[in-house]
Input
Amino acid sequence: MSRKKRSNGEGTFYQKKDRTWVLQITLGRNEAGTLQRKSFTAKTKTLCIERKNQWLAEQEAHTQLAEAQRLKEEEDAALRLQLGHSVESEILFSDAFMSWLQLYKSPPTRKPSTYASYIDIYEGHFKPFFGDMSLYNITQDTVQDYYQKKQLSGSRNDGKAGGLSPKSIRNHHMLLKDFFSYALGKYKLDVNPALETERPEVITKEMRVLSSSEMEVFISEVMKETQRVAILTDLMTGLRIGELLALEISDLDLNKQTLSVTKDLIRVKTSALSLNDPNIRILNYDPAKKTHLIVQNKPKTKKSVRTIAISDELAELLIRHLYTMAYSYTRNPDNLLFPSAVGTHLDPKSFEIRLSAVSKRCGIQKVNPHALRHTLATRLVEERIPLNIVQGIMGHASIETTRKYLHKDDEIEREAIATMSNMINMDTMTTAPNLNGARKKHKFANLPLPDFAKQSVIHPESA
Output
C-alpha cells in the first residue's frame, strides 16, 4: 500500500491491496480535539476526486439551506413579534378547515356517512360563524361564544326553534378540538382555542321501549304490512336499520342457524362519496343526484360485525318469507333478504316512515327502528340474559352502552346470590350430567334456500 500526500488541501491518496483508490480529507477537529476525516473510495483517483467534490457541494448546499432557514426563522420571529401572530395563521378558517377535513377525515380514512356528517356540521354551523375569520382571530372566547349561541339559538337544520342539544354541541366541540390541534403545528397557532371551553352536560334521554301491551297491538298491526317479516326480524334481533336492510340471503346460515352482520346500508350526500373507496358499493350512481344509497363493508363499529344465533321460530319465519317471494316471482337480482317490491334495496327512510305509520294506526307513541332495538335489549336484560351476550347480539362497542338497559332490582340480586350459593352444593356437583361434546343439529340444517340471482324461483305448476 502506497501513500502520496496531495498539496493545496486536496487530501491524501492511498491504494488498497485490491488496487482501489482512497482519497481522505481532513474536516477539522471535534470538541475533544480529535481529527475528523472523510474518505472516498473508487477505482480511479479521478472518480475519488469527483465523489469528494460532489460531497463538498452537497455539504455547502446543506449549509446554505440551514443558513437560509435560520434567517427566515429570525425574520418570522421578528414579524410575529410585530404582528402578534404568525403569518401562517392569517389563513381563513373556511380554507384551512376544509383542507384538513378533506385530507384527514374523508373516505377511505373515514366512512362516507361520518364524512357527510362532518360536512353538514361545517356547512350548517361552522362556516356561517367562523368561515370568514382568520385563524389567529379565533380565541377561546370566540369558541365559547359559539357554544353559547348554539345552545340558545342553534340555527337548526330542521327549522325548529331553540338551540342545539348538548350532545350536538359536544360533537361540534370534538371536531373543533381535533382541527385546532392540527392547526397548532400547521399554522403555528399559540394555543388550541377549543381546549379550555365549557360545554353543557350531556344528559342521556330516556329510551323508547315498547311495553308488553304496546308490543301486542304493534305486532298485530305490523302483520298488515308488506314488509312485516323485516319489521319482526328487527324486533327479534335488534339490528340497526342499515344492518337489517343490507342483509343478503347468504347471510342466513341454516346449518348454524345464524344471521351474519357484515355490512350496512345508508344514504349519504354525493359530495361525501369517493368513487375509488374499496369499502363501499354505490347503488345506481348518478353524479347529478344529491344523495345516494351505499352499502358499507364496515358497519358502525368493529363489534358491529357479528354473527347472531336465531331461534327456530325466526328461522322458520325467514324460510317461509323467502319461499313466498320465490312463488310470487319477486325480482331480487342481488339476493337480498328483504328486497323492495321492485327487487332493489329498501331505503332506510322509507322503512322508518312505514314504522311511524304503523305506530300511528296503533295510537301509540312513535316507534322508530331504534325503539325496536331498545325494546329487544331491555327485554333481554329483564330476562336476565348475561350482559356480554346482550352486548354481542346488539353489537355494542362497549359493554357500558349495554349497561344503560340495566335497572336495579333487589329480588334479582337476591336470586343471583342464591344461585351462586346453590352451585357450591356438593350434591348438585355429583349429580351433574356428563357432557360428551356433541352439538345439537339445528332444525332447518341443510334446507336449500332460493337463489334469486340465478332466477331459481318456484313455479306453481312445477310445485
Summary: The two ends are 99 Å apart (CA to CA). The CA atoms of residues 269 and 291 lie 4 Å apart. The chain has a mean pLDDT of 83. The longest helix spans residues 45-83.
